[in-house]
Amino acid sequence: MTLRASLFRPSRVRRAAAVTVIAAAALSGLTACDLFAPQDTLDIEEASVGVSATVGDVFVGNAVLVSENGKTANLVVTLVNQGPDTQKVTIIPAGGQTIDVSLKPRDTRQLGDPPSDETLVTGLDAAPGSLSTVSVNSGGQSVGLQVPVVTGSLAPYGTLTPAPSS
Question: N or C: fewer beta carbons within 10 Å in the chain?
Fold first, then answer.
């Protein structure tokens, strides 16, 4: 009996070793997929029509001008203060009027949501489908954005067109 028990033991050891080798090969094969596949999280793509930038500690997100006639527009943009201090943001569209916004630390502000917060830009000379320059200043830094001019015929912007002047 002793001889027979010792014959079966090496077989169990071989099986255990084979299972361990297969498991290690499968684990390394599954975890090494990022060696060959590109990582999409490294390059952030804009998922909308608007443009984004960072000025000092302020993130300017998805800026777009909504206009039906190319003369008057509603500036729609999200501002996020990513810093620990209050930031003053000055936005100057091509029409020339200045829009001043103060953001508390870690604060988010969405501009251009009518009727309560319409950011009207007048004197614009940019037809829908074109780009218009909008300067954004904050923390002593400045950036000039080429902001698209769109109409309310695009589904997400239908309710964001400027109210007709009376």
Answer: C
